[in-house]
Every structure is written in structure tokens, then in C-alpha cells.
Design a protein that fits this description.
Jelly Rolls, 13 strands, 2 helices, alpha+beta
């Protein structure tokens, strides 16, 4: 009996003992078009995932108007970029103002990262950001997670306009999203104090551990079961 237990333990080690973080989805935004052509569903540049800004799954309907847009692209930066990716453009979220093309304030608006994490665990998200040089940009970034796109739980809030330099932030692991086929990570911005206040977001990286057993672990699991049955016979 001890032999079967030992093999099961070895197999379990094979499931996670050599696990390392891999990239799930990455947005460098270098091909992102400026308003009025900025898409409301921004597909990952590498990996698989989409950033939503269309009012679905807990996101807000950001306006990408010809003038004074809430959703556009700006000059990007190199911080938090994957190896070999040059600085290009970034995702621009702007406060905008009421009375211009019917566009109102974006304080309290959200964008949502939608992912399929069926085989993933220990998922984390990191990003680089900077507010407009005036210091009037969004001073609060609240991150929350959901498995249904309706009910969200806050995991982290960052404050400060960060107008003079680029900040790189990492949310840490989000266990609630382990193995979820429908996983949502929401960013809610607030605190902009002027119509032209904005934030630039760049090099958004979602990584995690791909949690499927190695071939050797699967073989050991089968062998352990066979030995256990023989001992019982």
C-alpha cells in the first residue's frame, strides 16, 4: 500500500513541483489605432485575451469620438515590455468632458480583461502606466476580479496621479481565477480633475502556471493505480 501512496506523491510533485510562470496574454498596444478608430474590444498582441471597453461584462462604454475622446491611443513606453518589444503606442483612457459630442466624464468608468483560464492557476497581471503631465489624470486605479462578469471582488487599489514618471505595478496572484473558463479582471479609474486629464496604460502582461500534469506524472499516476489494485487482489 505504501508503494502506491509513494507513487501518488511523486506524481503530485510532477503536477506542480517544476511549475513556472508563463505568459497567458500580452498587450503592447503598438498597433492600436487612435480615436475615432480605437476598437472597443482590444485583442491581445500575444497569447489569448481581450480588453473590453464596450459596456459588456462589467466594462463601461467608452466613447472613441473624433474630438475629445475617452478611448484612444497615445505614445507608449518600454517599461514592463516583453523582451524584443519596442516602445510604440499605449492605451489612452481620458476623462473627457460633458457637452462635447455628448461625451461626459469618465470618472468611475471601467475596462475589463476577459480570459479563459481553464488550465491556469497562480494568475497575475502587471502593467505600466503614467498620467497626463498636467497631473489632472485619473488618480485611482481599482482592480477587481469576477468569474461571471457581474459580481466583482476588489483585489487592489493604487492611488496617485504619477504624472512625472512611469509606474510598473503587479497585482500578485489571484486565486479566485484559478481554472476559470470565464475570468474577468476589471480596472476602474477615478479621480481625474480636468477634462483633458488622462492615463496611458502599456505593456499589460497576464501570466500564470499552466496546470496540467507532465507526461511522466500521468504515467506514474496510472502505475500507482495498477499496483494498488494488484495489492488488493
Amino acid at each position: 500500500m505504501r508503494c502506491g501512496c509513494f507513487l501518488a506523491a511523486v506524481a503530485a510533485t510532477g503536477l506542480s513541483g517544476f511549475a513556472q510562470a508563463d505568459m497567458i496574454a500580452y498587450w503592447d498596444f503598438n498597433a492600436l489605432l487612435p480615436a475615432p478608430n480605437t476598437p472597443h474590444g482590444i485583442v491581445a498582441d500575444q497569447g489569448a485575451g481581450v480588453i473590453l471597453a464596450d459596456g459588456t461584462f462589467g466594462s463601461s462604454n467608452w466613447i472613441s469620438s473624433p474630438s475629445n475622446p475617452q478611448l484612444t491611443s497615445f505614445v507608449g513606453f518600454a517599461e514592463n515590455a516583453l523582451a524584443g518589444v519596442a516602445a510604440g503606442t499605449s492605451l489612452g483612457l481620458s476623462n473627457s468632458s460633458s457637452g462635447t459630442n455628448g461625451v461626459g466624464s469618465a470618472n468611475g468608468f471601467s475596462v475589463v480583461v476577459k480570459l479563459d483560464l481553464t488550465n491556469w492557476e497562480s494568475v497575475s497581471l502587471s502593467y505600466a502606466s503614467r498620467a497626463s503631465g498636467s497631473g489632472f489624470g485619473f488618480s485611482s486605479h481599482t482592480w477587481s476580479v469576477s468569474t461571471d462578469g457581474v459580481n466583482f471582488t476588489t483585489v487592489q487599489t493604487y492611488t496617485g496621479t504619477n504624472a512625472s514618471s512611469v509606474a510598473v505595478r503587479n497585482l500578485g496572484t489571484m486565486a479566485a481565477l484559478d481554472h476559470q473558463a470565464n475570468a474577468f479582471i476589471r480596472l476602474t479609474v477615478d479621480g481625474a480633475t480636468a477634462s483633458n486629464g488622462h492615463n496611458r496604460f502599456d505593456n499589460v502582461v497576464v501570466d500564470g502556471v499552466y496546470a496540467t500534469p507532465a507526461p511522466g506524472a500521468v504515467a506514474l499516476i496510472g502505475l500507482g493505480g495498477l499496483l494498488a489494485r494488484r495489492r488488493r487482489a
